[in-house]
Amino acid sequence: MKIDSNLLKGIIRSLELQKIKCKGSLISSDEYDLIMEQSMTKADTFFKLITNCYSHAGNTANFCNYFNMLSVLDMGLLGHFLITCKNIFVAYDRIIKYQMLFSNFIEMRYSHSNSEVNWVLQMPYQLFGKTYNMEALADFELLFRLKIEETLSNKKPEPKKILLFHKSIEKNAARIEYFEERYQCEVIPAKQYNTITYNVNQIDKTIPYQNYELYKLMDQKIISIIQELYKPNEFKNNIKSILINNFEQFPLGIDEISKRLFMSTRKLQSILKRENTSYNMILNEIKIILTIDLINRNKAISEISAQLGYSDTSSFKRFIKENTGHSLSDIFKLSQEERMTLICGSK
After folding, report:
1. Least buried of 68, 123, 138, 153, by fewest C-beta within 10 Å?
2. How do the domains of the chain map onto residue ranges?
């Protein structure tokens, strides 16, 4: 899983201007050098940097202040493309369509009605929550998205409300208070992902940087650039991210996955075969990951079974037993740490 190195470069630039050492401190010297040399960076390096930034900052306010200099241009080529769009809604559409240019584990979406805009960002928190600080990551991505909107609309964001991802409600009072004060809106804890809601009339819809000729030129090139960024041996991780990020529609069919990866179903099947895997094998792995996540959230077997696409719980129980060696009743008795050991090869 990878993310555009321009974002990490922007983070490092913002930190170093505040006299905060990154190289050999927040990340290793080798990781720092790879960020500077490569167009895409491993997700683990990004998560590690954000987690260590939060530990260094000590609280949400200091942490968020580290990133005040970020803008849409720190999305790299996608950011430059967004400022050629004629208005904010075209920009949102292009984020959705071309987001793999920025990252293959993040999925953005938005819905637009006459009165409201809802902008959602989903990440596969289930894959990394044991190793990294996912609430710090949620705080960062929320702040960065609002910086993107601020750059594009050329004004301070005025969200109507924010749904803020959390793992433990007891530890989130300070986070909620900080974002309520910063953006003067209601902030509600959420279990799955961050959502920003605007009143339509609060958004300055015009993007002053528009350049239609550049827009048309880049629009023709971007898909080929995306295909160059991701090599065949990385498609398994791409698929895992898409499946987890679209949990409400689980399981997506391989035709829909192929469409999101800008290729035919036949080509994707051929690539997966060369990787010694298949769509069904990946799907089964994600079922285990989501089952453990839902058990950790105290969901009932019948609810988990239905959410994972099973029409009866007996088939679901049999699947779990065959793929983990444990019955569901045994898994419920395990600690969260013990359950995590049942997830094999999830990264």
Report:
1. 68
2. 70-202, 231-340
pLDDT on residue 296:
84
Give me the CATH code for the 231-340 domain, please: 1.10.10.60
CA distance readout (Å), 79 to 16, 44, 59, 71, 198: 22, 22, 29, 9, 21
Instruction: Judge whether 134 and 255 are in contact, CB under 8 Å.
Output: no
pLDDT digits over 108-164, tens only?
Answer: 888 888 889 999 998 877 666 678 888 999 999 999 999 998 888 888 889 999 999
How many residues does this entry show for the chain? 347
What is the per-residue pLDDT across 16-44, written as a single tens digit (0 to 9) for each?
A: 999 999 999 999 999 999 999 999 998 89
